[in-house]
Amino acid sequence: MSSGDAAARRRISAPLGRGGRFARLLALLVVVPWTLVALSSHGPALVSALSGTATGTGRPSAAECASYRSPGRVPVTGHQAPGAKLRVFAVGYHLNLDHAASYATWRTAMRCLMEDTVVPHLSPGVPTLVVFPEDIGLPTIGVGARGAGVRAQAGSPARAASDAVPLGMAGALAQLNIAYAPQIAAYQLRFGGLDPRKQAMLAATDTFARAFSRTFSEIARDYGVYVVAGNNQARYRVSRDPAEVALFADPALKSTGVAYVATSARVTNSTFLWGPRDVDAAAPQFETNLLFRNEKVPLTALELDLLGLDEGPATGPAALANASGVDVAGFTVGFATSLPAFAYGYPFGQRPAGFDPCADLRVSYAACQDHLGVDLMVQADANPGRWATAAQSGGWQPLEWMGSTWRAVADPTVGFRYNVTPMMTGNLFDLVFDGQSAITGRGAQAVPRRYVGTAAAEATDPAAYGVYAGAKPEFLALSPWAAPDGDRAGLAAAAGTLAPGSGSAREDGYAESVIYADLT
């Protein structure tokens, strides 16, 4: 999730301030239901109506995939080049909580994305990197009977409140605190002092491992590709201790005799890279082929105030290791999950003399990545806000986004060769996720492209955004938006029809797009 640049992050923090009325209301929503259930001698009845778990080898048929396709999916487009060393896909998934009805439906939905949009465009003999967006694992917290109420809420009029104060999202967290009350109670005893905002995500560690980690680990292995995907989850270990299975395993799957148990109370926005082959036989199940894990830093106000997530390391050796890259087909791939990709610490092209890019990664994460030798920046993104608007930060958001996806390959003070940014779309309760996926390349001479509403800078734009206006040849691939380009007032009106609770026939009609490019 991103709020744009650091100043924008500070500006939007006010309605979600930790000491504000909304924070106190959220605390009541998530603490009181859990307390009532935890003190009850019976707790909620957790019905175990799941339809199975992933087998790890099946490929869904075209007929099976038909029911999983988003109505807003647009044709796959890409940039092909001779001598390609790596073909990279940016998957702009459209959120659908129905996909998380069970472990099997989630697995099938993700594999159908592969079958429909990636497999037909694989290049024989060329390694493949498939990048799914930030927070794509978030829907899996609603898998099975425990998430049935949340899935029902997602389709009801009560899901919407406002862009600034997402009470519908807070209500969903309250429901999850009830559904996961036994696991929350167990982790409270184990770790003590849990932040009530993140305790449901910690309690869902077993669910996340079975749904998120397993699905993407197996996709990498079964399709022979490198896979990037992100989720807000804790590190885990595999347990066969009957007491831990009873406490932490999905109630429907306790008969497996296995539980995936959090090893600490830290819940981070993490981006994972899985490879096609095992690299660590001693790693936990579904991580034996894990090549890299990155913890997001800095975090947005929403992640800090609404979700209570733990930030990745900002200073010292741990910060450098987190921001460094990993080799994939000769490219040094690093992860700058949304907001960190904006964090240079200075304006475009104006690096100060004596500047230390790695002194504090909350300020200069992107500049530090360049210093560490990353040449392929993966910017998996889930932008929580309308795309065609200036309301969030005071600047036209598509123009602001040029300060990450395009700046990475155009700013002369850094040397990134490529930026890959898949953008998640769709309404989640009263949160909007929207944007245009992009792949950019330094020195590219592709057909010039631009985000919507950025043909020219306007008087209301911050002066620093002037360099970002106009079509740019560095865009190797760019997904369309849900409405044709035009004047900003018309685009903003279109964004309003897409928003949750609009009542428009176009509500939630965002584009789902997959783009690709050959990297040389």
What's the name of the CATH homologous superfamily?
Answer: Carbon-nitrogen hydrolase
Oligomer: single chain
Please tally the β strands and state the result. 17
| Fraction of residues in β-strands | 15-25%
**Can you tell me the residue ranges where pLDDT is under 50 for at least 5 consecutive residues?**
5-56
The third-level CATH topology is: Nitrilase/N-carbamoyl-D-aminoacid amidohydrolase
Morphology: globular
State the helix count: 16
Which CATH architecture? Answer: 4-Layer Sandwich
Tell me what you see in this structure:
With 520 residues, the protein is of the alpha/beta class. It has a single domain (6-44, 88-519), classed as Carbon-nitrogen hydrolase (Nitrilase/N-carbamoyl-D-aminoacid amidohydrolase). Helices cover 29% and strands 15% of the residues. It has 16 helices and 17 strands. The chain has helices at residues 6-11, 21-39, 62-66, 103-118, 148-154, 167-179, 181-191, 199-203, 205-223, 242-248, 301-306, 316-323, 361-371, 397-401, 407-410, 488-498; strands at 77-79, 86-92, 128-131, 226-233, 236-239, 259-262, 268-274, 290-295, 326-328, 331-335, 376-378, 418-421, 426-428, 431-433, 438-441, 475-478, 513-519. The strands form 4 sheets. The chain has a 7-stranded mixed beta sheet with strand order 1-17-2-3-4-7-8. Strands 9-10-11-12-15-16 form a 6-stranded mixed beta sheet. Strand 10 (331-335), helix 13 and strand 11 (376-378) form a beta-alpha-beta unit. Helix 4 packs parallel to helix 9 (205-223). It is globular. The model is unreliable at 5-56 (pLDDT under 50).
